[in-house]
Amino acid sequence: DGVNLDEMREFAKQFKLRRLSLGLTQTQVGQALSITEGPSYSQSAICRFEKLDITPKSAQKIKPVLERWMTLAEERMKNGGQSLPDYNGFESSKKRKRRTSFTPGAIDALNDSFDQNPHPTGTEMSELADRLKFDREVIRVWFCNKRQTLKNTIKKIKVPPSPES
């Protein structure tokens, strides 16, 4: 497609280094770009670009946008701007909940409970949450994730290997 892959690899590597030197996350870059360029420049788009997990044509399309934005961000940094609003003009209103860390004892209790009943009622989840000192929603999500993991594991075991050509 006329895309110089070595040049693109080098740009992606340099972009990531420049982003990190500014202390910015992929999410922050994605939020800033979504405001000016539209929703197709999300955190996952930035991540895929940095890993070059996109088509060469897509990489060629996003490269000038990233270059232009990074140059502006670096100029703002040089001029004394250091916080996220200085890069994208707004403070993120969407605060993500921190990832829950389960103690080994809590994991054992959750697994024991799952073994007895993979689909507990709301009351059972509330009681388990109270006993383990977690929000009920955290327990609910843990059960959903555990069921999905089990389902995916069973699918992998059942899928026959594809025939060799």
Automatic annotation (TrEMBL):
The keyword Nucleus applies. Residues 1-74 form the POU-specific domain. SMART domains: HOX, POU. Pfam families: Homeodomain, Pou. GO terms for molecular function: DNA-binding transcription factor activity, RNA polymerase II-specific; RNA polymerase II cis-regulatory region sequence-specific DNA binding. Residues 93-153 form the Homeobox domain. Residues 80-122 are annotated as: Disordered. Residues 95-154 bind DNA. Residues 113-122 have a biased composition (Polar residues). GO terms for biological process: regulation of transcription by RNA polymerase II. GO terms for cellular component: nucleus. It comes from the Eukaryota. It is found in: Nucleus. Keywords: DNA-binding, Homeobox, Nucleus, Transcription. CDD domains: homeodomain (cd00086). Signal peptide: none annotated. The keyword Transcription applies. Belongs to the POU transcription factor family. This is POU domain protein. It comes from Helobdella robusta. The gene is 20216049.
